[in-house]
Amino acid sequence: MPETDENATLALSFDLTADPWILVLGQGGEHGELSLRQVFDQAHGLRRLVGDLPTQEFALLRLLLAVAHDALGGPRDVEHWAELWADDDCFAPVGAYLDEHHRRFGLFDDRTPFFQVAGLHTAKGEVSSLNRIVADVPNGAPFFSSRMPAVDRLTYAEAARWVVHAHAYDTSGIKTGVVGDSRVKGGRVYPLGVGWAGNLGGVFAEGRTLRETLLLNMVAPADTVGLSDWDAGDDLPAWRRDACGPGAEPVRRPTGVRDLYTWQSRRLLLHADGDGVHGVVLGYGDPLTARNKHGCEPMTAWRRSKTQEKKHGESTAYMPREHDPARSAWRGLASLIANRGAPAQGAEAADYLPPRLFEWISQLVTSDELDEDFLVRAHIVGARFGTQQSVIDEVVDDHVSMAVVLLHERKSEYAEQAISAVTDAEEAVTALGDLATNLARAAGTDSEGPRATARDSGFHVLGTHYRTWLAALDGSADPYAARAEWQRQVHRIVGGLGDGLIDRAGDAAWQGRVITVKSRTEWLNAGLADNWFRYRLGTCLGHPRDSGQPTDTGGESEATVPAAAMSASAAAAPVTEGHV
């Protein structure tokens, strides 16, 4: 074995159960760094975890959940969960559990270093820069990072957090082969995919404290729709399994969340001395394909993939539904709460499946274990990879708060109206974008920039208002009246944004010009564009003075259409997104 600083490493000690390394935010906004034991002891007084990146927070939360599931032996079902929720000291058994397994939580243990492989080395004894595991140092683009030009050293605490993150979100690409890995060819291992969480459009539920957050995300498979692929008797976290060797373990499915949340997707070993960690050996670990893992992974939504069905000859194939960095969490509410569970036998498979986590919370509120006005924050986290998944291009981090009545199985009207309210906003912003397009065309200028700017402005302003509206939609409200009020609010806000566009249109737009729409020519000016815009708002939202039931956007009523727009629409069809 090549000469390394192994002797120095053997003398090091960093116990993750006792030494501070997890970043937290207190209820008063103060930041701190705690050990595993302290996090569970103080969870009731902490607001949340924080991380060097949002993806690190998600990876660390899943680690804590694996500890909690294993230490508490559950929850077994809704009733067991309710007992934990009611017990202020429910995490008390975690202390004894960490005492029992503390040897596996030693970052520099000589035989079983935490989430690492003792003695891991390459044929030539190479030790890579810490850039390989620190995700905020983009390879080839260090000017985008606060760490320039590279990471020379990390504290033990920082290194521990990035080790957890590497198993969850490490990039793909060609990696240097390690001795003992049968996949090595010519000193390299060719791309085998990103860390498991990197495949997901990650989502978790946040409560008022870290204690509530941990409990809300502790699912019981027996009472959760769709979690069918668990083997509770064999569901063990990585530290209760045999230590990994340098190569991959036999191909297998995860046995449950304790296994999945601690999946060893990489083989790595930190190199350190008394002043910190200065290098790493990093290789591929246990492979895990994303296809059809909806029966065991609760913290992502799923989409049906016809491509995967054809490729593998399967009747149905589901892939994780990744987040779109350009789409805010509130606009994707339907993917979290829509009732799109497995169809009845013989029916066509659903195109989308919501996160099993929210199916679980649905059981809690439907069983009256959570009050209908209990406010939960759906927090979405994800990584967008680029260049054959060899780099992280973007990190998605957003949230939307909602009362859990939206998940109540017998009160689906709340979810339906909340989702329809998003559609209201989408259609109104589309009309605003069309107005910007028509004004630009009337003036004879490029329309793409104004359209994009108008849409961004519309979604930005409506996003703030929608979040406030949604958080107030609890079990005591009338969801239909609430949506009708939302439509009036959208009409007022988007109408005002349209007024601003008209006011800034300029003389050329007011004078107008002849444009070509499909195969015919029409005259277009700011006045006509304004009339079409008001007509569109009235069609999708109703007249601002209307009251009662929300407007049915599937049809049009003359009562909701301004007279000027009626005369304009009779003269010519508006230029809409579909026409441009």
Automatic annotation (TrEMBL):
Q: Which domain of life is it from?
A: Bacteria
- Which stretches does the entry tag as region Disordered? 544-580
Q: Which InterPro entries match?
A: CRISPR-assoc_prot_Cse1
Q: Compositional bias (Low complexity) at which positions? A: 559-580
Spell out the Gene3D superfamilies in the cross-references: 1.10.132.100
A single Pfam family it belongs to is CRISPR_Cse1
Its name, as the record gives it, is: Type I-E CRISPR-associated protein Cse1/CasA
